[in-house]
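re: the backbone from monday

yeah here it is again, tokenized this time
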């Protein structure tokens, strides 16, 4: 089982690019860091677990009168360019997991036998709304998880809360220059809060140099 897993949160056109339906300010500036992280993982056979919104108009998160906390305008709609991952974070032979429960034992066997990446689709903000997320974590059993993507104050936050709340016993790292928040001040406060709970903030350069990750590489 892998010692190290990279976790890519929602690096999709609608969030990452200025013409996206739910653009995270400044997210396009992350592209070189995201490219470097993806190449690093693939060159070393480090599995990437990625989440991605995959919406239909009937999803409860989608609203024409959004509150911008739990509901949002249409974005990452299934079959659109906006739903696709950007080129810099394209996955290698991904095992795509819909947010529908699969038989845990059978799925665990598929995961353990898979040599590519993993894509967790979701209809809600929280990746743990996909019931297969915990099976992926249990099956991969990583010693460390390096997390990045968007947005720090929404889906990154929920992913880390799920991991910290019993989703894994892995050491957690957050790549600060490969993530962006809608509210920059809130994002900075969250990074400080997570550091107090054991999530180590690191940079892309740290990852590429193996800083703090030596035992898992």
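seq for it, each position gets an aa:
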């Amino acid at each position: 089982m892998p010692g190290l897993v990279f976790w890519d949160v929602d690096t999709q056109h609608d969030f990452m690019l200025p013409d996206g339906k739910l653009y995270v300010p400044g997210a396009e500036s992350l592209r070189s860091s995201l490219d470097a992280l993806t190449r690093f993982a693939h060159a070393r056979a480090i599995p990437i677990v990625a989440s991605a919104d995959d919406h239909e108009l009937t999803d409860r998160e989608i609203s024409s009168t959004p509150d911008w906390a739990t509901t949002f305008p249409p974005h990452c709609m299934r079959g659109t360019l906006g739903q696709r991952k950007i080129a810099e974070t394209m996955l290698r032979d991904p095992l795509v997991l819909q947010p529908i429960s699969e038989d845990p034992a059978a799925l665990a066997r598929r995961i353990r036998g898979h040599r590519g990446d993993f894509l967790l689709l979701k209809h809600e903000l929280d990746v743990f709304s996909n019931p297969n997320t915990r099976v992926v974590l249990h099956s991969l059993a990583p010693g460390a998880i390096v997390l990045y993507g968007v947005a720090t104050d929404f889906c990154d936050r929920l992913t880390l809360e799920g991991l910290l709340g019993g989703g894994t016993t892995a050491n957690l790292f957050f790549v600060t220059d490969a993530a962006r928040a809608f509210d920059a001040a809130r994002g900075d406060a969250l990074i400080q809060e997570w550091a107090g709970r054991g999530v180590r903030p690191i940079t892309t350069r740290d990852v590429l140099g193996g800083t703090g990750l030596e035992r898992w590489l």
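DSSP finds seven helices and seven strands in the chain. The beta strands are 4-9, 48-53, 95-97, 118-122, 144-150, 171-180, 200-202.
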